Each structure stands twice: as structure tokens, then as C-alpha cells.
Fold this sequence. Notes:
It is a single chain. With 365 residues, the chain is mainly α. It has 14 helices and no strands. It has one domain (31-359). 74% of the residues lie in helices and 0% in strands. The model has no long low-confidence stretch (mean pLDDT 82).
Amino acid sequence: MSRARFxxxxxxxxxxxxxxxxxVHVNASDRPWELPFxxxxxxxxxxxxxxxxxxxxxxxxxxxxxxxxxxxxRTTLPRRMVTVMAAAFAMIACFALGxxxxxxxxxxxxxxALVAALVTMACRYYRVVPPGSxxxxxxxxxxxxMPGGADAPARLGVFALGTIGAVVITFLYSAHILRFRDxxxxxxxxxxxxxxxxxxxxxxGLFVGLSLGxxxxxxxxxxxxxxxxxxxVIQGINLxxxxxxxxxxxxxxxxxxxxxxxxxxxxxxPWAIAIAVTVLTFCIETAIVRHYAFxxxxxxxxxxxxxxxxxxxxSSSSALMxxxxxxxxxxxxxxxxxxxxxxxxxxxxMLRRLLRAPAGELPKR
Length: 365
């Protein structure tokens, strides 16, 4: 074997070992078990109530709204409540905008892109805890493809009730956990508003919109998961993190689809679906801070159960899972492309010049 070929194989082996270490690395976390439990209750109780009332579709919709609870900051009780109530209002507004886009189907992409950009700006400025703008975009995207018509006001009301339930559980959880864990001080807004807040948000909004457009061009039915996947990947703190998140999301989704296939085949009873959503939510909130790919295994069946709860058993499960995988790959690849743009120094320099010309120098703190 020539020296050049041996050197190439050695480099490939080193790269493969590095990628494997990144893939299997588990992060340390001090997250208390009470937080995953509170999130699971916020997501599971509305669905259980919906099943009891014979309205599993409305119950699942309220559970999506209840994801507002993930935005609890580790601060004092008053700041926690103000933050979660503001997030609840924003979630309702995003879902309403998504439903409104149904009247102009061609506007779905621009509206989702606008939501992603504006909410990302707000999350960056106010230092909102992860997952940042993810669930706001998810609410808008699901609202854009959920049947509307005469039921649209009722759906919006049910969604709002889910966010209210999340606010109540936030208070109960916070009143309990603050007896044992000291609050952290609130973070100040970032120093460079133009660079970190505006430029990042505009690029993220553009690629989130492009991911939805790409999924539509590919003919994927209900392509709401593409912009969510794109946003989950593009929010990496550096290009390496973006690459890792993209690879982990695709791998986790592939395994998660197998879990989904088993759940869809066996969890046909509405009560079983509600219990599965509760357990999956607890698993996600426990794993997400430790290993993203492992959490993605549970994210895939959870989102399918919530978004398709009222139609499970009435359509082909294979077609549903294939569509979700296509959404994930499409969104993740565009998220990777967007991450390359976000971390491209020359592009950021050009955007900085273009934005400073009409807007003037944004203040630095």
C-alpha cells in the first residue's frame, strides 16, 4: 500500500472515530426530574381529558399549546410566570397566523419564515431558554396545515386553553422547585443586537421558509415538520454543532420511525395514545439535555401522535412515516445549509453593511 493511500485511510479512520465519539457523547445535566414530570403532565392531561370527552383531536391540539411550559426560565417566580405567560400569548399568535395562512396557501411559506425570524429575534434578545423559537414555529406550521374552516375559532380556543393549563402547571412546579433550587439572575440582552439578533434571525427565517417550500415542491403531504427540523438543526452555536445536530436528528428520526410504527400498530386505543404521549414527553425532557439523537427517537413518535391523533388508523401508517422522514431529511439538510450561511464570516460582513446603511448603527449595550 502506497504512503499516500495509507495516509488517506488513516485520516478517514480518525474522522470516523471523531464522528462516533460526538454521536455517542452524553452531556452531564443537573435538570431535576420534577421538570420533565411537569412538562409530561402539561402535555398529557389535556389529551387525557380530550379522550374522556370523546374529542381526541381537540385534546391533542391543547397538548401542543401546553408545550409553552418548556420555556420556564430558572429565575425568580414572578419572572418565571411573566416569561411563560408571554410565551403563551406568542404561541397563540403563531398558531393563529398559521391558521390564517390557509386562506392564502401561497403565503404559507412567507408567513412561517416571518414567524421564525420575528420569534428568533425576540428569543435572542430576551435570552429565552432552549428550544428557543422551535415550538412557536411548530405551532404556526401545524396551524397552517390543520383543517380550518368553520372550526378554526374553536381550534384556536382549545389551543389557548392548552397554554393556560401550561401556565397553571408552571406555577405549581415553580412554587415547589424554588424551595430546593436557588433562582439564577436574569440575563441581560446581548451586546451586539445587529449581529447576534437581527442577522441570525433573518438567515434562520429565510431557510425555515425555504425548507417549507422545498417540502411542498417535493409533494410531501402536510409538510409542517420540515421547517421544524430545519430550525432545530440551524440553531447550533457553531458549524460543528449544526453538523452534529443534523446527523443526530436524521439518525434519531430513523430509529424513532421504527418506534412510531410499533406504536401506531398497537396503540390504537385513544387511552393508549394519551398515555404514550405522556410517557414520551417525559422521556424527551429527560434526554434532550443529555443526548439529542436519543431524544429524537422519542420526538418523532410524539409529534406524529399529537399532530395525527384524530386520524390514526384511518390512513396508511407507512405513508405517514415516509412523509415524516422526508420532512426531516429535507428540513435538516436546509438547516445545515443555513448553518453554513450563519457561520460564514464574509456573508455576515456583507449583511452587516447592507443592514447598517438603512437602519443606522444599532445601539450596543
